Amino acid sequence: MKILAVAAGRKNGNGEILLKEALMRAEELGAEVKMINLHDYDIRPCSGCESCTVKFTQKHEAPECVYKDKDDMDMIMKEWLAADGVIVAVPAFSFMPSGLYRVFCDRHLAYEPNFHKQVGNKAYFRNRVGAIIGNGGSTRSWMSLTLESVQITLLAQDIKIVDQMMVNRAPRPGQVLLDPAALERARLLGENIVKSAGAGERPPYLGDRSMGWCPVCHSNVLSLGQPLWNGPGYAIECPVCHCGGDLVKDAEGRWKFEIQENGGERSMLDGSGAKDHFFEIRDTMKLYYSKLGEIGEKQKKYLDYKPKGLSR
Ligand SMILES: Cc1cc2nc3c(=O)[nH]c(=O)nc-3n(C[C@H](O)[C@H](O)[C@H](O)COP(=O)(O)O)c2cc1C
Question: Which domains does the chain have, with CATH numbers?
């Protein structure tokens, strides 16, 4: 069993320490482990060309990123996709995952398993599990979108999240070493990922279920429901796993998020959400291609208008 750990924080920082605790435990249990820090690699920001999305949805073909041989991303993704389990350790920067991690994940689009499945690319039909370590210098309120944003990136990669943990109030490199409970929790996370890899399509969630509102993915953020592209939405939706339902009061008078009967129809946990998104993009881009002349005409005004920029 192969486990790949990806650090997006400082070299020898708190995230790396937590990852190493998890990996030491995974190795004790027989896993073959590897670890990378994204700072060590050349990863270009996505150019936004959308050639991967166009190829997927308009040509029904498996794409290759236009940067495939131009930086280290393809090499990293080969390991990432071949791993039975991935663990990511991502620091909070301004409440969110660090920008480096986001740059890495923007490039995932060309490698999105649920899109490759839609175009019949057999190489992507694999069960993979994931675990998340979110670490920051402050309390959870100051890391409010960190775990949730990382969850989204793994679900988009068709990785079943089996555990997640958050470490707070460890700002300086190595400060997490003063928190034995965090190190112990990281060991358990390493154990949980080994236990779950190979558990099939629906591995059980082994993390702390009280971490958030959503009874499905345990995220701690909720959104007012939005109309869907092809039907009505839900009253309340989970912006992470896309399950829908409403807020209800439990017997003790506390609000909880209850999933409605059809609330899992666009779930990011079983691929149905990503599949729906594939067809939404296909439809929306078709409109673009049918109106190229009109867009070209209307665009002239904006191409001709050249406001001043900054000179170096
Ligand atoms: C630019 C920047 C923004 C940060 N923003 C937050 C934040 O919003 N919330 C928080 O809890 N910690 C924040 N931190 C602290 C880091 O998350 C903290 O130093 C963490 O331990 C870094 O992880 P590492 O040691 O693995 O690199 C920030 C640090 C930097 C450099």
Answer: 1-207 (3.40.50.360), 212-293 (no CATH)
